[in-house]
Amino acid sequence: MTTPPQSGREPDTHVPAEALMTRFEAPEPGAADATDTTGKGKKASGQLRDIWRRYKRNKLAVVGLVVVAFLMILAILQPWITPYDPMEQNLLNTRKPPSDGHWFGTDVLGRDMFSAIIYGVRLAMIVGWSVMFLSLIVGLALGAVAGFRGGALDSLIMRVTDIVLAFPALIGAILVVQIFGNGIWQVVIALAILSWPTAARLMRGSTLSLRESEYVEAARSIGASDTRIVTRHILPNAIAPTLIYSFSHIGVAVVAMASLAFLGIGVPPDIPEWGTMIANAVPSLNVEGESHMWVFPSLAIVVTTLAFAFVADGLRDSIDPKLR
Amino acid sequence: MTSPSSASSSGGTLLDEAPLLEVNNLVKHFPIRGGLIGRRPTGFVQAVNDISLTVGRGETVALVGESGCGKSTTARSVLRLLEPTSGEVRLDGVDVMALNQRDLRRARRDMQIVFQDPYASLNPRMTIRQTLTEKYELFGHQVTKSTISDLLDTVGLAEEYADRYPHEFSGGQRQRIGIARAIALNPKFIVLDEPVSALDVSIQAQIINLLEDLQDELGLTYLFIAHDLSVVRHIADRVAVMYLGSVVETADRDELFDRPHHPYTQALISAVPIPDPRVERRRERIVLRGDVPNPANPPSGCRFRTRCWKFEQLSETDARRCIEEPPPLYEIDGNPAHQASCHYASLRDVVRS
Amino acid sequence: MARTDSTGSTPDFDLDGQAAPLLEIDDLRVHFKTDHGVVKAVDGVSWHVDEGETLAIVGESGSGKSVSAMSILGLVPTPPATFPSGDIRLRGRSILKMPEKQQRKLRGQEIAMIFQDPLTALNPVFKVGDQIAEMIRTHQDVTKTVARRRVLDLLGEVGIPNPGVRINQYPHEFSGGMRQRAMIAMALANDPKVLLADEPTTALDVTIQAQIMALLEKLRQERNTAIVLITHDLGLVASHADRINVMYAGRIVEAGSCDDVFYRPQHAYTFGLLSSLARMDKQRQDRLLPIKGVPPSLSKVPPGCPFHPRCQFATQGCVEAVPTLETVVTDETMNGGLHRAACIHSDQVEIAYSERLAP
C-alpha cells in the first residue's frame, strides 16, 4: 500500500519505517501468507495450502485419506493384484479357512475370498464415486437454479425433493431397481435418485444466502449476467457444504449397495459384492472355522465407510472453517 | 470526459449544464408476503416514497439518514440493482428505466457503486486481478499487462498485491480494491454507499482523500450515502436528509449544517457528538422520543410527527395540521436550493449550541 | 465528579490516605496462542476507575481495548488465552485470587457489562422480564414477586415504555434501541458499582445513541456508578468522558483528563487520530490529514514503539526501545489528574498540535 501524500515533516528514518510497515501490515490471523511476497504461483495455490494445513491437524482425517488412497489403488490395480479370478469357482475347495494359498479363505462356491474382496473394492469405488458425482451434479444444478431463480420453479424443485426424501430409502431403492432391473448401473441410478435431494437442498440454502451477498450485487453492478453470476460468483462459494455432504455420502452409498445385495437386489448374485458375500455366509454364521466368510466382507464395509467419513469430516473442518 | 473539478469546491449546482443525474418521483415498495400458502402480498413497506433529486456533473450529493430511512434503497433503485416500483431516472440523458436487461448491463459501465462492507463486497475465491479483470472482460475490453497495475496504482495499491485473495487484505485496502473496481473504465456516476463507515477511524481519512482525489482527476459525480454527518460535511456539496422514505430537507452543505430548518435535521445534527470537549459542554442535545415507526404503516400527515420535538410544543390546532396534511417541500427564505418539508420550519443552530 | 490522585504506576497503595480505587487493573497481560504466533491482545495495561466517573478507553479494532474489560468479567476463555501477569482489584481486593464462587458473585453484582450487540447478552428463547428477574434472583435472596416488581421498575427506569407489556416479550420483539435498554436494565439489576460499556451504541443510529448515552449519564449521576466506556468514537468520548486511556496495539499509549488528551495530546498516535477527523462544526478543510498505513496485527507488533511505522515523528530511537508511559509535566495541567504518554517525541507532538489548533 502506498502512502497517501503526507503534509508536515518527514523523519529522516522514513525509509526503514516504510519498509517495516509493509512487513507488519499483515491483516487478521487467517491471512496465512500475507507477508510472503515470493512468487506468484505460490500465491495462487495459497488457498489449497491453507486447506491442507488445516486438514493435517485432524489425524483421523489423514488416516482416512491414506485408506481412501489405498482403496483407490486397489480398485484400479485389481486385475493385476488378485491372485485368482474372483469369479472362478472350485467346488472341491469350499468354505476353507485362511491359508497360504487363500489368504482370506474360500467361500461356498470355492472362490478365493481375497480376490473377491479386492474385486468388491473396485465395485464399491465405482458405485460410490458414481453416485457421488451424479447426485452432486444434479443437486448442484437444481439447487442453484431453485435458490437463484426462486418463485414457482423453486417451489416445484423443493416439493420434488420433499417427496423423494419422504420415501423410506431402502424401499425407494428397491422400487427403482425393480423398475430398471438388476445391474450395477441400475444400483448407481437408484442411489443417486435417493441422494440428490439433500445435495440440492444444501445447494439451494447456500445459494439463497449468497444471492443477497454484496459481492453478488457487486457483480451485477458491473454488468454480469445471471449465468455468469451463478457460475463464477455463487457456485465456487456455495459448493463446499454440498461437496462435503456428497463426499460423506460415498460411504453411505457403499453400505446401501451392500444392503441391497444382501437382500438379493441390485448387483447380480454371481458378481462378488460384499453384501452378497455376507448373505452367502449367513448359514455359516455359527459354524466354527467359517467365520472368515462374513468377517472379511464386513470389515471391508466398515473400513471403507469409516475412511470416507473421516475424510469428509476433515474436509468440513478444512475447506470452510465457518461450517464447523 | 468533462471534468469540472471546480464544481466540487464551489458547492453549488451548475446551472449552465443539465444535471448528470435526474431522479423524479422515485417510489420503491417492498411487498410483505404473509402466510405459507398464499403468495399474494398482505401489505407494502414504503421504502422509498416519491423522491426527486438531481446531481450535477462533478458534484457530490449526500443522502443522509438513519438505518431504514431508505437511503440505500434509493441509491440501488437509481442504479436498478433493485427494480423501482415507479419513477423516472435519467443519467446523462439516458432513460435508465426504459432500458432492457441487455442494454442495462451495458449502461452499467457509466454508473457504478462502492459498497459499505469491504469484507462482503469482494468474491473471496477470486484474486484481486480476477475481480478487476472481470469488469474489463464484461465490457469487451482488452486487458493489457499494465491495465491492472495502473488501476491499482490509481487507488494507491502496489501491483504485487494483484494475485492475492481478499482475505489477505485489511479493510482499508479492500475498500481501495472496491473503489478500483468502480472507477475502472471511467464511469460517469458512482454511488458511494457508506464507503468508510466500516473502517477504522485512522483509515477513514485515507479513503475520503482518495475519493476526493479521484473525483478531481477523473471528473466523477458522486451520490454519497451516509449516516456519519461529520464525513458528509467534509465531502458533500449538497445534502438531502431522508426520514422514513422521504426527503425532509435538502440544501447546500454549509447552509444545511449552519441553518437547518427541519426539526428532524436539527435533532440528527444535534445528536452527533463533536470530538471537542469544550464544544460538547456547550451544546444542547435534542433527544428524540422512541423509535422510527414501521415503514409498512407510517403515521398520517407528517411522517416525523410521532417523534418530533416541535410537534410536542404546538397548540392543538397547529398540531392538527401535522396529523392531517403531509408537508410538501417548502422553499426556505426564498432560496430554491434549500427546501424543508415541515409546516413549522424555523432556524435552530444545533452545531455549536 | 470523583477524582483520585493515585499514581497510575503504583496503584497498589494510596499515597494520600484515600481508599483504594473502586476498580483497578494492574499490569494486565492477556495473550492468545494461535497458529500465527502469540497474539498479545493486552500487553501490560493498568487503569483504574472511581465512583461517579466515566473512564473512556479509546482505540481502533485490534487495539485490545475490549479484552481488558472482558477479562475483568472472566469472559476471556483460557485456553487459548493466558494471563502472564496482572491483577484486577475491586476496592483493593484482588478478584483473580478470590475463589471461583466469590468471583462469580462479584461479576454481575458489583461489576456489570453491556455489549455492542444486545443479542449476545439476551437469550432469544426466554422472555426479557424473566431473564432480568433471573439475574436478580441469582444474586439476591428475593421472592419471584419482589423480583418481578423490581424488573418493572428497572424497565421503566431505562425508558422502556409499557413495562407491564414489555416484561412478557421476547428479545426479537424489541427494536435495536429497546434491546440495548433491556440489556442495560439487566446490567443494572443488582445495582452494580461499575458498568463496563463496550461500544454500547456503535450498532445504533445517532438519535438512538443520544438516547442511550443520556440514559447512561443519568445513571452515573443518580447512582454514582463508575462507567468504563470502551469506544472508537472520539465524539462520544469528548462529550462523556472524564478521563481517557488511548490504546494502540495492546498498550496504553496516552492517558489523561479529557481536556488534556484533546487539547494537549502528547502521543503521536493521539495527535494523528485527532488530526484525521472530519468535523461537523467546522467549515470544510481542503484535505483530511490521515494517519498513513494500517494498524498492526497483534501477532506481529513492530519492535520499539508499535506506532513508529505509521508515525510522522518517528526516529531511530522509536525503533530501538519500547517507550514507557511517563508522566507529562506541563506548566498548566487542565482539570487536574495525571497526564501520561508513551512517546519520546511528545514535545514535538505538542508543538505540532498547537500549531494545528491555531487558526
TrEMBL record, chain B:
Stored InterPro entries: AAA+_ATPase, ABC_transp_ATP-bind, ABC_transporter-like_ATP-bd, ABC_transporter-like_CS, Oligopep_ABC_C, P-loop_NTPase
Statement: the UniProt record of this protein carries the keyword Transport: yes
Start and end residues of each ABC transporter domain: 21-269
Keywords recorded for this protein, A-Z: ATP-binding, Nucleotide-binding, Transport
MF-aspect GO terms: ATP binding
Pfam families: ABC_tran, oligo_HPY
CDD domains assigned: ABC_NikE_OppD_transporters (cd03257)
Homology family: Belongs to the ABC transporter superfamily.
Protein name: ABC transporter ATP-binding protein
Organism: Actinophytocola gossypii
Organism classification: Bacteria, Bacillati, Actinomycetota, Actinomycetes, Pseudonocardiales
From TrEMBL, chain C:
The keyword Transcription is assigned to this record: no
Domain of life from the UniProt record: Bacteria
Record-linked InterPro entries: AAA+_ATPase (IPR003593), ABC_Ni/Peptide_Import (IPR050388), ABC_transporter-like_ATP-bd (IPR003439), ABC_transporter-like_CS (IPR017871), Oligopep_ABC_C (IPR013563), P-loop_NTPase (IPR027417)
Principal place of residence: membrane
Location(s), subcellular: Cell membrane
CDD domains according to UniProt: ABC_NikE_OppD_transporters (cd03257)
Membrane topology: Peripheral membrane protein
ABC transporter domain: residues covered: 23-274
Keyword terms, alphabetized: ATP-binding, Cell membrane, Membrane, Nucleotide-binding, Transport
A molecular-function term among this protein's GO annotations: ATP binding
Stored Pfam families: ABC_tran, oligo_HPY
Similarity comment: Belongs to the ABC transporter superfamily.
Protein name listed in UniProt: ABC transporter ATP-binding protein
The species this protein was found in: Actinophytocola gossypii
Lineage, uppermost ranks: Bacteria, Bacillati, Actinomycetota, Actinomycetes, Pseudonocardiales
